[in-house]
Amino acid sequence: MNKLIIIVVLISFVTVFRAAAEPVVAAEPVGAAEPVGGAEPVGVAEPVGVAEPVGVAEPVGVAEPVGVAEPVGWGEKEGTMHFGIKVGPSSVQDSPNGYGMFYRYAVFPPNTFNQYVFLSQLSIAVEGEYVDLGSSKRSFSYADVTSQSASTFGVVVTVAYPISEYFSVHTKTGLANTTRRVDCNFSGCGLNYSRTTAGLHLGVGGQYKLSSQYTLSVDYEAYPDGYSMTAVSIATMF
Questions:
Q1: Quick check: is 106 in a domain?
Q2: pLDDT one-digit tens code per residue, 68-117
Q3: Number of folded domains in the chain?
Q4: DSSP 59-110
């Protein structure tokens, strides 16, 4: 009996010992070794729109200011040349129409005199011209025809100042020779003569820029010996 009890106890002891030595489903826990959706977080490792800021490295419209280096629409470079023709009424007796031609050469372009704002806008040119001021004819009871004519040529300095993008005003100061001629065609007239007078040539006017090549001007000009002319002129630049 005692042996039977001892055998049962030994069998129970061996059974408990084996159960302790080999645990069941404890070494491999389920759902813990590989967490779902946690190992690779989304949207954190690579932030969007931070590494390369947009519109900061190259500011727009700052590096090249517009309309400062040269007066708007009017800057003539040194050496710019104009050739033009003019026509208009003159002060020759009976107000005939005069006509002429001129040549202009730019000596000082804008921004030459930068010490003062006003002077920096000026454009200075030298202009030479020839103008036929026209002629008039009259008939008298004692003469068939008496005629009078005048012409002038000279050199002036033209100073222009821009008012807007396409319009400027200018003044002219220089010297000119004016020739006056009177003729009558009957014997004993005694009125035939030709006279040349040197003196100041003054003028004032405005100029409109039709395009990058052509300009249109209106001027009032005073010549020696009391002559004057209101002229409309067109010039081409080259």
A1: yes
A2: 444 444 556 667 899 999 999 999 887 788 999 999 999 987 776 677 77
A3: 1
A4: -SSSSS-SSSSS-TTTPPPTT-EEEEEEEEEBSSTT-PEEEEEEEEEEEE-T
